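User: Just a sanity check before I run the rest of the batch. Below are the structure tokens for the first item. I only need the designed sequence back.
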């Protein structure tokens, strides 16, 4: 096939295909246009990042909620008004996406593998304990924000938001830089790839679609609710 003919080929419909399956389909579709050696390297690279990419970008949603929490704390400490619903919305994202989904993946599928391999067991125990502590804090945030009236209520809310952020900033950093990279060392490549497919299936069953995309929209709405969506405002001048 001539190069010009290849470039004019229409992109096939892929609606409804899971992300990894579409990547595999696309890789196959362009195989004839790539040198064999470069295609092999590309496939290997994609296999090596697929599972961890999902886990780390889910941490991106967590991080954006932490930034929203920081904004609420800033307003409480400076006696500025803020919509109490924003605290509820942020905690709901944490509860449904981070605690009930993302952390459950870690607890059901990652932590047992590390324990079986005898690797990073102290870290795993700490991460698990922090998951439980985080859920208790989220319970309190939801309860306090739902009936926010007195200065004492505002102080309690701020304290819990600060405690949550203080724990989860290093928590996610340790997972991203130690736990997730170590996963490659304790399971075989085919198991790593299969694990990613399993995560994809659980995600779609849990959220009825691409949970990441759904919650990116929710966290963007939270940021707009607090007036912190525009990234340019954080650029120093």
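Assistant: Here's the designed sequence for the first item:
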């Amino acid at each position: 096939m001539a190069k010009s003919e290849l470039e004019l080929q229409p992109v096939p419909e892929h609606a409804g295909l899971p992300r990894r399956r579409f990547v595999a389909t696309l890789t196959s579709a362009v195989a004839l246009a790539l040198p064999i050696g470069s295609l092999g390297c590309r496939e290997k690279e994609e296999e090596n990042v697929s599972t961890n990419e999902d886990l780390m970008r889910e941490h991106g949603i967590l991080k954006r909620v932490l930034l929203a929490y920081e904004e609420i704390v800033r307003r409480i400490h400076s006696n500025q008004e803020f919509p109490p619903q924003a605290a509820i919305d942020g905690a709901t994202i944490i509860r449904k996406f981070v605690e009930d989904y993302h952390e459950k993946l870690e607890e059901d599928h990652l932590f047992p593998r590390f324990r079986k391999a005898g690797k990073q067991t102290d870290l795993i125990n700490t991460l698990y304990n922090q998951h439980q502590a985080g859920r208790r804090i989220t319970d309190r945030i939801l309860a306090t924000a739902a009936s926010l009236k007195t200065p004492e209520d505002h102080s309690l809310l701020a304290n819990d938001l600060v405690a949550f952020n203080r724990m989860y900033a290093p928590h996610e950093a340790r997972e991203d830089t130690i736990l997730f990279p170590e996963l490659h060392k304790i399971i075989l490549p085919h198991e790593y790839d299969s694990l990613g497919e399993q995560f994809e299936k659980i995600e779609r069953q849990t959220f009825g679609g691409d949970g990441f995309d759904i919650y990116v929209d929710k966290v963007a709405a939270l940021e707009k609710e607090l007036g912190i969506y525009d990234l340019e405002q954080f650029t120093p001048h």
